Amino acid sequence: MIVIGGGLAGLAAGVALAESGWRVKLFELRPYLGGRATSYVLPSGEHVDNCQHVTLGCCTNLDDFYRRVGSANKVKFFDRLFFLDPQGRSGAMQAGILPAPFHMTGSFAAFAPLSLGDKLSIARAMMRILFTAGKPKEVNTPAGMSMLDWLKSQKQTPRAIERFWRVVLVSALDEELDGTDARFGIDVFWKAFLSNRTGYRMGVPAVPLAELYDGCRVAIEQKGGEVTLRAPVRGVRVEKGTIAVLQFENDREESADAYVFALPHTALANLLPPEIKSANPALASLDKIKVSPITGVHFWFDRPVTSEPFITLLDTNVQWVFNKTALYTDQSDAPVPGAQQYLQLVISASYELLKKSREEIIELCLKEIRQALPAAREGQLVKATVIKEASATFSPEPGVDRFRPAQATNTPGLFLAGDWTATGWPATMEGAVRSGYLAAEAVLRSAGSPAKFLQPDLPPTGLSKLFS
Ligand SMILES: Cc1cc2nc3c(=O)[nH]c(=O)nc-3n(C[C@H](O)[C@H](O)[C@H](O)COP(=O)(O)OP(=O)(O)OC[C@H]3O[C@@H](n4cnc5c(N)ncnc54)[C@H](O)[C@@H]3O)c2cc1C
Fold first, then answer.
1. CA distances from 442 to 271, 352, 438 (A)
2. Is the pLDDT of residue 313 over 90?
3. Is the peptide bond before 205 cis (omega within 30 degrees of 0)?
4. 3-state class (DSSP) for residue 55
5. Residue 331 has pLDDT above 70, yes or no
6. What pLDDT score does 330 carry?
7. What's the 167 CA to ligand 1 centre distance in angstroms?
8. Are 319 and 347 in contact, with CB atoms under 8 Å apart?
9. Are strands 81-84 and 291-301 parallel, antiparallel or unpaired?
10. Residue range 212-238: average pLDDT?
């Protein structure tokens, strides 16, 4: 069994298949595992994440994956989400004593950055999501409806859209509201905020991301498999309609009974030969799946500028601030001389920043951080790094699910994984793990020994049970 790609999708498939007794050979292009959800050492010596990654309580498959590979204790979960606006008004969202779906009502009612009118309009839309268990029929068409159109149809105030829906969804889905399929947006609110008291809890890794995957190699090697890094697949030879050989550098060739291609859709489109594409009409539309950018900005200050573990900023380019100094259990990994606090800022759907220079981005973000955090006004920036990911995720645009292929294909022995395959989820670590588990299930089904890896969603609790 060969898995190509050591991102979360390939790792989830590889670990699940190894646990089922298969000898898995996993080949990864880069010198480390984790794909987009990884970390690496900069030439100047700091170990940085390829952008902060967070999970939510409703991400049941990612949670299962971290447990399987012994990393669950490397992710800290937080019950309180903290918001700050440029006027210095703050607000927190946290579950109170009421059962779902009313568990956030107390903190929502007290949330200063929104007016009563905004809150009433949000409550109305939330009721629509609740009464339909996250599946209002008006958004369920093949071409989809944009989240912005749905919010307008629910008569949301401009400030509710800007300071509530946009804040949550641009970060969760990496796209602006007018470019997001309402099904994804509504699902976020149903699964994370309405159906269950714990779905919204935010999980933040307490180690650099690459350290979450140490157990994957062990799981695969224990069953006689191999993990090979710096091993890009360069070509695929097809004979009689099936894959005969994978071609690597230095004339290396490998073959197996089954192959899981766990590559980004753009890389897969370049690698698969025409015979495979013509046998699989579902692969004809990969170029219709667009991508959207995320920019990560790393700031090292000469003094502590916040004690919050993370903050959501309202009405600014910077959407999230993560206090890595507070979040990491071990600080020795990112030693920047003279630095007392390391912050990581995230800007999703950062189309505008792609055009700006590194210096412009640093200046813009520093201004916003100094406005939001008074202690940063006196603080000196010791070091700053900008990481622009132009193709961070696939864009969840209306109707995109029509172009996402299933994990099983028409070609015997060929299986697909990747956050962009048909999982029903947007481009997330959860979506990637789901795709890997679904690919492993498809492999085992075709081998006549079916097994189940996909985990169920969190069950609706409290009064939300009445609507599911
Ligand atoms: C900046 C950024 C921030 C993000 N933030 C979050 C977040 O907070 N929460 C969240 O849930 N998700 C987040 N995501 C999305 C998440 O990272 C992805 O959805 C997920 O990691 C995708 O996993 P994957 O395995 O499908 O793809 P990838 O991670 O892209 O894995 C594909 C792998 O294939 C390898 N590969 C490519 N070509 C070849 C070849 N020819 N041969 C061998 N190997 C090859 C690549 O090197 C890569 O390792 C973020 C993504 C980015 C970029």
1. 22, 40, 6
2. yes
3. no
4. strand
5. no
6. 80
7. 23
8. yes
9. unpaired
10. 97
Report yes or no: 225 and 18 within 8 Å, Cβ to Cβ: yes
**CA 8, 10, 12 angle in degrees (round to 5)?**
65
Predicted model pTM: 0.97
226 CA to centre of ligand 1 in angstroms: 21
- Do the Cβ atoms of 185 and 337 come closer than 8 Å? no
Tokens of 176: 């602006």
Nearest Cα residue to atom 49 of ligand 1: 35
Instruction: Describe the crossing of helices 60-68 and 429-446 by its angle, rounded to 10 degrees.
Output: 70
Q: Is the CB of 233 under 6 A from ligand 1?
A: yes
CB atoms within 10 A of CB 332: 7
Determine the Cα–Cα distance for residues 387 and 130; give it in Å rounded to an integer: 38
Q: Phi-psi bin for 232: left (phi > 0), alpha (psi -120 to 50), beta?
A: beta
**Could you give the CA distance from residue 90 to residue 230 in angstroms, rounded to a whole number?**
46
In this structure, the strands spanning 25-27 and 2-4 are parallel
Task: Give 461 Cα–ligand 1 centroid separation in angstroms.
Answer: 32
Cβ-defined contacts of 211-214 (< 8 Å, 24+): 211/39, 211/71, 211/74, 212/34, 212/66, 212/69, 212/71, 212/74, 212/75, 213/6, 213/11, 213/33, 213/34, 213/38, 213/69, 213/71, 214/69, 214/70, 214/71
Euclidean distance between CA atoms 458 and 193, whole angstroms: 12
Q: Look at ligand 1, atom 15, and give the residue with the nearest C-alpha.
A: 428
Q: Which two tokens stand for residue 184?
A: 């994804």
How many Cα neighbours within 13 Å face the side chain of 128? Answer: 18
428 lines ligand 1 (CB under 6 A): yes
Bridge partners for 289 per DSSP? none
pLDDT digits (tens, 9 = 90+) for 1-31: 999 999 999 999 999 999 999 999 999 999 9
Q: Which amino acid is at 289?
A: I
Helix (H) or strand (E) holding 172: helix 166-173
Q: Could you tell which of 36, 63, 354, 400 is best to mutate to test the pocket of ligand 1, judged by most ligand atoms within 8 Å of the CB?
A: 36
* DSSP per residue, 223-241: TT-EEESS----EEEEETT
CA distances from 182 to 58, 82, 308, 396 (A): 19, 25, 32, 9
Provide the token pair at 76: 């800290």
CA distances from 81 to 89, 96, 111 (A): 14, 13, 11
- For residue 258, how many C-alpha atoms fall within 13 Å in the half-sphere facing its CB? 25
Residue type, 186: I
